[in-house]
Amino acid sequence: MKKIILLFIISFISKLSAQDTNYINVKPAPKIHNESARNDSKNAVYFELLGSTYGIGVSYERKILNTPFLSLNARVGVGTLVLVNAVPTFGLNTLIGKEKHFLELGFNATRTFGIDLFSIQGNITWIGNPILGYRFFSENGFLFRLSFTPLVNTFSADIGAEFFPFGGISIGKMF
User: Fold this and answer.
1) At the N or C end, where does the chain have fewer CB atoms within 10 A?
2) How far apart are CA 126 and CA 90, in angstroms?
């Protein structure tokens, strides 16, 4: 009797192991994102309040170098200084981080026409501003920036270098 029960158990186990196991509900392993949302998009357009455009502006950014942890971007934008004049801005920045949250470091140069931000005179000057900021990207391409962009007047020959704390906020889209 023991041999019959043992034979039945072995037979039952062998039938279970030989059957197709597709009926078992196994969830797939979660995806590991080695590439962040920014790695899929090479372009960004964003609206900026204050910041590097010194008022209300729009900027276009193009990724020129990309690694899993770091990217280098070139930027061109135009802003208006309290709706008085258009100021073009040019710059380079780097984003350090993974997934959605990044540290932004960079430098912009802005050419002002007609109004010198550092004096009452109406002349043309170059103004530089370093960028230290936070950047967020969502998976659908939404972009949010919060940046500290102090104004540094180092390009004007008629007055010495001056420093003014400044910052800005931006929202836009990556594509």
Assistant:
1) N
2) 11
- How do strand 101-112 and strand 151-153 relate by DSSP bridges? unpaired
Q: What is the CATH number of the domain that holds 160?
A: 2.40.160.20
Number of domains in the chain: 1
Tokens 């704390």: give the residue.
165
| Under 8 Å between Cβ of 58 and 46 | yes
The torsion defined by the Cα of 169, 172, 174 and 175, in degrees rounded to 10, comes to: -160
Confidence at residue 33, expressed as pLDDT on a 0 to 100 scale: 45
In order of 5, 71, 74, 77, 108, the CA distances from 129 in angstroms are 84, 20, 15, 14, 5
Q: Domain range spanning residue 114?
A: 42-174
Neighbours of 109 (CB within 10 A): 16
